[in-house]
Write a structure and sequence with these properties.
- This protein is an alpha/beta fold and 228 residues long.
- It has 2 domains: 123 residues, Response regulator (Rossmann fold, 3-Layer(aba) Sandwich); 93 residues, Winged helix-like DNA-binding domain superfamily/Winged helix DNA-binding domain (Arc Repressor Mutant, subunit A), CATH 1.10.10.10.
- The chain is built from 8 helices and 12 strands.
- The strands form 3 sheets. It has a 5-stranded parallel beta sheet, with helices on both faces.
- It is globular, with a radius of gyration of 18 Å.
Length: 228
Amino acid sequence: MKVLIIEDSPEIVEAVSLCLQLRWPESEMIVTAEGKRGIETLKNTPCDFLILDLNLPDIDGFDVLQEVRTFSDIPTIILTVRGKEEDQTRGLEIGADDYIIKPFRPRDLVARVNAVLRRYAATTGTNKDKPNIVRGKLTLNLSNAEVTLKGKTTKLTPTEAKLLYVLMENAENTLPGEVIAKGVWSKEPVDTDELRTYVRRLRSKLKDNPPRIILTDYGEGYKFVTPS
């Protein structure tokens, strides 16, 4: 596994590298302290995972992630001291797969990376035997995490694709948050803020405003309505 770490603190880089290499001894770390250089590295070097700080010396980490998401769906964890709820929400909304606040526990970092990798594999590996799920005029391609609605194709992150898949598999039925969390993140109880953020991201990418495809059943959960 080749991991790109965009982080300007040598101590954090050393700690992250040690954590990941103890869990994945074959992993290779590529390190840059600057956001712009990190973007160029991703454009020119195939990487399997991105660890991204927000407080970088040249540009904000959010700007880095926004640029990255225009050309790559690389699994990404934001690792930062910025712990405000609005920062966490923004990070998830623009494409991070997880958000960890410093200082971090090594065991927690490894577990989060492992969980993101499992979700990524669920949309790019194990589902290649049935790459498409179709509901009305909406098609989700699980092999490349792309959704096509009425002829327009949009790229999703692995987590967004998994969430949409869970909803589409249960079309016309309201799914409680606990059931969705189990299907998407393999965990309970549900983090309602995280789920709400991903639903909002999906609606945005599907241009589902006001919602007609992914409906909120207040107090009950969410329901996918087949678009005609």
